[in-house]
Structures are given as structure tokens and as C-alpha cells.
Amino acid sequence: PSGEMGLEPLFQAWSYFRRRKFRECADVCSQLLERPPGEQELDSEYTVFQAAWNLKTRALTEVVYVDEIDMDQEGIAEMILDENAIAQVARPGTSLKLPGTSQGGGPSPAVRPVTQSGRPITGFVRPSTQSGRPSTMEQAIRTPRTALTARPITSASGGYVRLGTASMITNPDGPFINLSRLNLTKYAQKPKLAKALFEYIFHHENDVKNALDLAALATEHAQFKDWWWKVQIGKCYYRLGLYREAEKQFKSALKQQDMVDTILYLAKVYLRLDQPVTALNLFKQGLERFPGEVTLICGIARIYEEMNNISSAAEYYKDVLKQDNTHVEAIACIGSNHFYSDQPEIALRFYRRLLQMGVYNCQLFNNLGLCCFYAQQYDMTLSSFERALFLAENEEETADVWYNLGHVAVGIGDLNLAYQCFKLTLVNNNDYAEAYNNLAVLEMRKGHTEQARALLQTASSLAPHMYEPHFNVAILSEKVGDLQRSYTAAQKSEEAFPGHVDTQQLLKQLKEHFAML
């Protein structure tokens, strides 16, 4: 019997797999598996039945496959129930949990906005910047849930389970492999089948415990000489939160076979244990063995950026571009760094480069609009923002564009337009603390003190990590003579941004007032 274009069915299934048509591949394999098992494949120790089973397993895995290296999201459950004890007072420049302790002297919050975890906003959204490390459970839950803040997702394991359940659609008549009835010892002795089966259990069924059992049996069968199984056991331990055990497995695998992926997994373990310096050293040792490896250089740049050492991060991103000049993350991060270093013209060149490469989304046009405005190319500013509004995929993105248009309006002196833009920002995203703060400033200019105070209180409760709402409350309270409230707010402002000169002057004045009393 022959399939499409007279092809032998197994070859046709393989052809579908190579062309990434995994659904069709799985269907052809299902038809083959319904036939009686028996005939031997030529040039192979497999029967056709085993070959079809193996191919279908791989096809179903590929449908839901997620690269574990980039899938690094720390949920609220993982954060609060974390049993790994970490030094409460880390040495300066050795912890991601206290980003203020960097020796690099990163940009001040007055120039570059920070996320809830105290790190400056990066030029590129990635899992590690999305989930920050809030100090308290209350703060973690109260923060608005967008990628722009460092609000953690509810639970990382929940994310994996959702990926796993999506795969049930592939088999309406129930799961393809019944894990509870599998004899794992038997499969562990067939290395080629075992590897496909492991990936299926790990990615498709999301059953980490069974996957770990299979990997342990298989590595024993291979007499602990197969590095691939050690990496898989490490991945299982990582997923189960056993970071020290994962570290041992990855180190053992690296001794047997030097692989870039294993280095990246091991660095992920160190970052989760809040040991960025160890991760940096690991990457640098990896670069000696794999010179010019982009993922390793990029890993170093990310860590420096998370530790608020922006100048070193920019250097490493430039090294990334020397090796791969179409690396979107590096271009975006260098662009945002130039923008916040008061060089919008240079930032504009980097964002234009992204546009030439075919990146075409709301965020890029938003950034182009801002760069054009600050570089005084006013003819392009509004058309970029119009394009950004047209391309916005959700309300958060629309809110961002309106917020930036509000800034442009303030810049050209049209305060009524600015007022409307900030209002539209809040219509699209009710948790936009910066817009509340700026609306309050406009209300103060109109002399509406009570409205301004209400807006500022909303802003400071939504974003306790921002110093502006606290400082504005302090100024407002001082003007109306409420010195105690002013002093409390000024202290909060100083906590959020210790180097703010105006806050320090206000605190000094208030202390003099209290001394006179």
C-alpha cells in the first residue's frame, strides 16, 4: 500500500516529520500502528511497528516542545515556598535579589525606569526579566500582571502543566502511551527507543517523576557513561526544585562531553540559587573552550544587565553583534541603553536596523516614535506612534503608546492633549502607575489638590518601587502644611531612590521644622 505520490507510508511519515508537519506525520504513523506488527525494516534492527511508534512519539513531542533553556519562569509558589537558604545580606555585586548592590553604578531611576525588583527596564522582554524577586508575598500578588513589571506568574509548574494538557488534543481517543502500564526497565535497555520515550514523557505528558525514573534506569544501563542521560536527569531535578542535585548531574555531564547547552543549564541552576558571579565565571570558562559562542556571551550580558552593571552589559552585547549581527536581543538592548544614555539619534539607528531585519511590531514603532521625538525629528514621531497603535495586539501595548504620546504632548506644551492621552492610557490599562502619577501632576497645575492626592496614592500603592509618587505626595503635603505625612512620604521616596537630591533637601527642611517645634 502506498500513500501520497505513491510513497511507502513510513517514508511518507518521515517526510512529513522533516517538513515539520507533525500532525500529518502522527496520523500516518497511527495507521501503520493499526496494522499487525511483524515485518522487519531493511538495514535496521527495528520492525516497521517500532519505527512508526518511535516516529509518532517524536512527532507528538515536537508539537509541544519548549526549549528548557529559555523557559525560566519563577512563580509565586516557587518563590515563597523556596527552601534554599540564601544569605540575607549579600556582599555588594554578588546577588540578583539586591540589584542596588552593583559596583557598576547603573543608571539612576531618575533617568531609566526600574521594575518592581529594582532593576532597570531592559530593552528586550525575556523570562528572567518578567519574573522579578518581590520582597514580600503581598507585594508579589498586588503588582499588576504584565510583562512590563516584575510580577511573578502564579506558578511555573502550572505553566508546564498547561503545555502538557494542550497535547491531549492530538489523541481524541485518549493518550498515545499509557504511562502507568509501561515497563520502564525494558525500555531503558533499548537506548534509541528510550530517548524518544523520555522526551515524550517529559515534554508531552509533563510527568517529571516517570521521566526521572526512566532516565535513572537508562543511565544505569549505559554504565553512567552517556552524558545525554545525565543532562536529562539534571533537567528533571531542576524542574523538581532540587537544584544542588541538578548541579551535580550537569557537572558530571560536562566532564564527559563539553556542550554549550549543558553550560547554559548549569548557569540556570546558579542563577536560581542567586549566584550570578558563579554563573559569570562558568560562562567565561565556557568561552575559553567555545570562543565566540553567541549564547554564552549573551548570557554574560544578561547577568550584568540584571546586576545593574549596564556598561559591562553593553560591551558584551556589542561582542554578540560581532559574532551575529542580526541578534535581535543585543540590538534592542544596545538601542535602549543609548536612548537612556541621552543618545536618541544612535538608538534610532539600532531600531531602524531592527526594522530592516523584518521586526515589525508595536514595541518597535513605539521606540522609534520616542527616539524621533527626542532626536527632534518631529515629522516622523506621530506617524510612528500611529503605526504602533495600529499594530498593538493588546490593551497593555495600546496603553504604552498613549502614555508616550502624553509625554510628547507635555514636551510640546499641549497640556490638554497630555491629559487626554494619560486618561486613554488608564482606559486601556487600569494599573498604569506612571500615568496616575503624571495625571496628578497635571491636576496639581490646575490647582485640584484633592484629585492629585487621590491619584498619587493610587500610583504609590500600585508601584511602591517608584520614587516619583512618594516624592510628589511629600511636596503636596508640605504645601498644605501636613508635615507628618510629607515626612513619611519623603522617607519612602528616599528608600526607593537613595540618591535623589530633592528628597534629601526636603527631608532636611522637615527635620529643621520638627527641631523648631
TrEMBL record:
Renumbered ranges of TPR repeats: 433-466
GO cellular component: BBSome; ciliary basal body; non-motile cilium
Compositional bias per record (Polar residues), positions renumbered to this chain: 127-138
GO biological process, one term: non-motile cilium assembly
Segments for region (Disordered): 98-140
KW Cytoplasm (keyword) present: no
Gene3D superfamilies: Tetratricopeptide repeat domain
Keyword field: TPR repeat
Protein name, UniProt field: TTC8 protein
Gene name of the record: Ttc8
